[in-house]
Every structure is written in structure tokens, then in C-alpha cells.
Design a protein that fits this description.
The structure holds two protein chains of two kinds.
Chain A: H1 2-9, H2 20-39, H3 45-61, H4 71-102, H5 110-125, H6 128-139, H7 143-167, H8 171-179, H9 184-218, H10 227-235, H11 239-267
Helix pairs in contact in A: 3-11, 4-7, 4-9, 5-7, 6-7, 7-9, 8-9, 9-11, 10-11
Chain B: E1 3-5, E2 11-14, H1 18-45, H2 48-65, H3 77-105, H4 117-129, H5 132-143, H6 147-171, H7 175-183, H8 188-219, H9 230-239, H10 243-271
The chains are: A mainly alpha, B mainly alpha.
Chain lengths: ~270, ~270
């Protein structure tokens, strides 16, 4: 009796998953999975070892990035990336707003809701690169395909979050506007829009940042931007130029993040 | 817009004063001007003939791609398995590095404000700025093509994401619990284990599943640069213009992403 009391009185950390059977099943399942997954890894260690030298050269390249010798290519690519980012974000926001309104269950009728949610699901499921490949095949090489790709990707992100935000809005405000006899448009402008606007601006700034990062890879499949230059630099093992491009991307992303932080802080 | 007038049409009230209104219009004007200018440059770089011709080309490609070549699915199971492994192992590897980095980057747990927090934040922002496809491109050049390069690429990109969300969660913890544990005379590690970790555990699990879901989507395309998975099949099908195979691969990717998203949503709602 006393023994059982002492053992049961000894405090132990409560486990995260209560049911012991479930816990052990999950742990053993993940272990089996990890073994199987690592088993299917076919690593050519000799090749990796050979590559370490090159990896080291690449890391060293960051200490002396070469901005100068390919500057015209770099600056053209960066300007194209920036242009694609700005236009596609602006255009993406313009399309996302109606789709976001349509995908909010509390203000849209069911058929509209289903169509808008479908558009969002497709846009979110397909990676930008896949969309870009298809659009390059359709529109031809150049920034236009990249612009359409990024606008399309913006819809999946912005419209989804906007719709969720609208669904979370305070009902009493919207009802108060409706009680004044407002039309649907007035209801949305005065009952809903003021509630979601600060977050919409914050999300748009965040999306600008994402679009810039994504525009850096679209060049790999011929959809314009800095990616093509970066790809060429890697292919030619010009690691110092590649390092320069990566440093520029990091700096721009940091600057955008800082800027969006300031704007969001001022809005809230 | 929001202006009230009296019966004679004179303004009696408006939302913003004149300066604020002018400033607002100036911001609108500059933004529209920038967008229009950027659009002009894109428009100059575009061959509009191709764009106007696009519906025909799209219909043509669509006609070739439909119906998908269903028998090709037997060659897709292995790349699909690889894709899932790249995403899962990549997430696990990234967490091993992201957790210490997050503790170093959080204001309330960092050992040193400048020498630990600075490098940790720099690591986070660099990892976040570079797309996993670029990491893959780089790693394929360094350690050769294959799923190993893809896994490391996913891991490198995920470190920044996970560490950023995790250090924000650490900064938001309830300090009272930390104080209570410290008051019992607990060591630094005990404080971490009993006061901080239990508080961030739910967000840690949420972040992990969330990033895993994103990684499934990203790992489907890594093959395009030679880093293994479904993308490899896709790029070889594209190279020989086998559109029925491409449409099947896109369909498989679509299903895989939807399932992973459902799993992640389910797990997250179970945690929270």
C-alpha cells in the first residue's frame, strides 16, 4: 500500500499524448517511417565529398562577391524582377478582393462561394514554377508569363486570408449597417471593409515581399527576372557572381520586411 | 467621400482635414504612377501577338494533355515516395537546427543580445530570403543531383521559417511561469524544460506540420533542377513534350498537396 502511494506520488511530466497505446503507436510508426525513408536515400558519399571543395569555394565567394563583371546582367534581371513584383502584386490585389469577398461564407451565396474557393484551391495547390512552365508555353518567354504567374499565386494567398478575415469580422457592426437599410454595396463598404482594411494592407505588404522572393526563381523556366542570371552563374560555376546576386536578394528582402514592419506598425 | 454638406451644399464635416486628404491622394497618385510605369516596361518586353494567340495555344496544349495517360501512374509511385521523404526528412533536419537558433534569437532566452541574437537573426533572414529552388540549384552544383540535395535544400529553406515563427512564440510566453520555476531554484536548463518548453510545445507542433505541408508543395518541383522527386519526371516529360504525362503528374501533385493540407489542418485543429 505504502509502496504504491510513494510511486504514484512521484511526480512525472504529463505526456503530450494521453492515450499510451496511441502514443507508442505514433512513436513506433514514425521510427519505422524514418528507417524506411533513410533506406531509400541513395547518397553517393564520394560525390558529396568531392563537392565539399566546391561548397567551400561557394561559401568563400561570399567574402568577395563579384558585383562588377556581370553588373549589366544583374541590374537588368533585378529591375525586371522588381517590375514583375510591383505589377503582379497590384494586379493580384485587385483580383483577390472580389474573389476574397466571394469566398467568405457570411456574405456570398453558396454557388459563388464554391467557385471562388475552387479558384483559391487551385492557385494554392500548384507551385509557382509549375504555373510558370505552363504559362511560358502559352505566352512565350519573358516577364509577361512571370507577371501572370505571380498574380495568380497572389490570389491563392491574399483571397484566402481575406476571406477568412471577413468570416471572422464582428457581426454586430455589419448588422448595424444593415439595419439602417443599406444596400449590399453600402453594407460591404461600411460594415465589413473598415474591419478588414488594416490587415489587408499588412498582408499585401507581406505578399509584395513573397512575390519578390518568388520572382527570383521564375527565371529558371524562362519567365523573366533575376533567376535566369543566377542559373547561368551557377551553371558556369561563377560562384562570386552568384554570391553577389544572393546578397542583393537578401538585402532587398530585408529592406522590404523592415518597410512592411513600419507600415504595419503605423496602421495598428 | 465621407463628407457631410448642409442644405446649401456647403461642407460642414469631412473625415480628414485638407492636408491629410492631399497626402492621401499623393500616395495614391504615386502608387498608380509606379504601377503604370512598370506595366509599360512589361508591355514593351512582351510579344503581344503571342498573348493574343494564347487562347488558341492553350486550347491546343489542353487538347494534347487530355486525357491524362493513366497507365503512367505506375512510374510515379517511387518519385511520389521520394517527394514525401524529401519533405518529411527535410522538415525534421531543419527543426534540429531551427530550435537552438530560435532560442538564440528570442529576446528572453538568448545568451547574448548582440553576439548570439545578431547572427541568429541573420541566419534566419538569409535562409528565408532564398527560395528552396535556389538552394537546390546550388546544392545540385555542389553535391550532385539526387534526393539528398533536395532534402538539404528543403531543410535550409525551412530553418528560417521555423526558427522565425518559433522565436516569436518564445517571446510571447508567460513570464510568470518562468519566474515561478526560477524561484524553486531551478537551473537554466530546468527553467527551459519546465517553464518554456511546455508553453511553446503547441505552437512548435503547429509550425512543424504547417511547414511540412508547405514542403510537400515545394518538393514536388525540386526535380526540375535535378534534386529528385516528381519534378524530375515532370521535367523529362516536358522535354519530350509528352503532355498527357505532364497532366497526370500535375494531377498527382494536386492530390498530394490537397491531402497534405487536409492532414496538416486536421493536426493543427487537434492541437489547438
Amino acid at each position: 500500500m505504502s509502496a504504491s502511494v510513494t510511486t504514484s506520488r512521484k511526480w512525472r511530466k504529463p505526456p503530450m499524448i494521453k492515450n499510451p497505446l496511441m502514443r507508442w503507436a505514433l512513436i513506433s510508426a514514425s521510427l519505422i517511417y524514418l528507417v524506411l525513408a533513410f533506406g531509400s536515400f541513395d547518397v553517393n558519399w564520394a560525390r558529396v565529398y568531392e563537392g565539399l571543395d566546391r561548397g567551400w569555394t561557394f561559401i568563400l565567394a561570399f567574402s568577395h562577391p563579384d558585383f562588377a563583371s556581370r553588373w549589366s546582367d544583374i541590374s537588368d534581371g533585378m529591375i525586371e524582377s522588381a517590375i514583375m513584383t510591383v505589377t503582379s502584386t497590384a494586379f493580384g490585389i485587385l483580383i483577390s478582393i472580389p474573389i476574397g469577398l466571394g469566398a467568405a461564407r457570411n456574405i456570398a451565396p453558396l454557388p459563388v462561394y464554391i467557385v471562388c474557393r475552387g479558384i483559391i484551391a487551385i492557385s494554392r495547390a500548384l507551385h509557382e514554377i509549375i504555373v510558370a512552365i505552363l504559362l511560358v508555353a502559352i505566352f512565350g518567354f519573358g516577364p509577361f508569363a512571370g507577371f501572370v504567374t505571380l498574380s495568380f499565386a497572389t490570389i491563392g494567398f491574399l483571397a484566402k486570408l481575406l476571406a477568412e478575415d471577413i468570416e471572422d469580422t464582428d457581426k454586430s457592426q455589419a448588422e448595424a449597417i444593415k439595419a439602417t437599410g443599406a444596400s449590399w454595396w453600402q453594407w460591404v463598404t461600411y460594415g465589413i471593409q473598415p474591419q478588414v482594411m488594416p490587415r489587408l494592407i499588412g498582408l499585401s505588404m507581406y505578399r509584395l515581399d513573397i512575390n519578390f522572393r518568388e520572382s527570383a526563381i521564375l527565371g529558371l523556366v524562362g519567365a523573366g527576372g533575376i533567376g535566369a542570371t543566377l542559373n547561368t552563374a551557377f551553371d558556369r560555376y561563377e560562384f562570386d557572381t552568384a554570391a553577389a546576386i544572393i546578397i542583393i536578394i537578401i538585402v532587398v528582402v530585408m529592406a522590404l520586411e523592415y518597410l512592411s514592419g513600419i507600415i504595419r506598425a503605423r496602421l495598428q | 467621400m465621407a463628407v457631410s454638406t448642409n442644405l446649401e451644399g456647403q461642407k460642414v464635416w469631412m473625415v480628414r482635414d485638407r492636408d491629410a486628404q492631399l497626402k492621401r491622394w499623393l500616395i495614391y497618385f504615386v502608387s498608380v504612377a509606379v504601377v503604370v510605369y512598370c506595366w509599360m516596361i512589361i508591355s514593351d518586353a512582351t510579344t503581344w501577338f503571342f498573348v493574343f494567340d494564347a487562347p488558341r495555344i492553350a486550347a491546343d496544349i489542353g487538347g494534347r494533355a487530355m486525357p491524362p495517360k493513366w497507365s503512367y501512374i505506375n512510374e510515379l509511385w517511387e518519385p511520389l515516395w521520394d517527394t514525401i521523404n524529401i519533405a518529411t526528412i527535410g522538415t525534421v533536419l531543419s527543426l534540429i537546427i531551427a530550435v537552438p537558433v530560435a532560442f538564440m534569437a528570442a529576446r528572453n532566452t538568448t545568451p547574448h543580445q548582440v553576439f548570439c541574437r545578431g547572427p541568429a537573426l541573420l541566419l534566419i533572414v538569409s535562409s528565408r530570403s532564398i527560395n528552396s529552388l535556389i538552394w537546390a540549384l546550388l546544392l545540385v552544383a555542389i553535391i550532385g543531383p539526387g534526393i539528398f540535395a533536395g532534402t538539404i535544400a528543403i531543410a535550409l529553406r525551412s530553418i528560417g521559417f521555423c526558427a522565425k515563427l518559433l522565436y516569436e512564440a518564445i517571446e510571447e510566453i508567460d513570464e510568470k511561469q518562468v519566474e515561478a520555476i526560477t524561484a524553486t531554484g531551478a537551473s537554466r536548463w530546468q527553467v527551459m524544460a519546465y517553464a518554456i518548453v511546455p508553453q511553446i510545445m503547441p505552437s512548435f507542433a503547429g509550425i512543424t506540420v504547417f511547414r511540412w505541408d508547405i514542403n510537400i508543395r515545394e518538393s514536388t518541383v525540386l526535380g526540375l533542377v535535378g534534386a529528385g522527386g516528381l519534378g524530375l519526371q515532370m521535367s523529362s516529360s516536358l522535354n519530350v513534350l509528352a503532355w498527357p504525362q505532364v497532366s497526370l503528374i500535375i494531377f498527382v501533385i494536386f492530390i498530394a498537396v490537397i491531402i497534405s493540407e487536409m492532414v496538416s489542418a486536421k493536426v493543427r485543429s487537434a492541437i489547438i
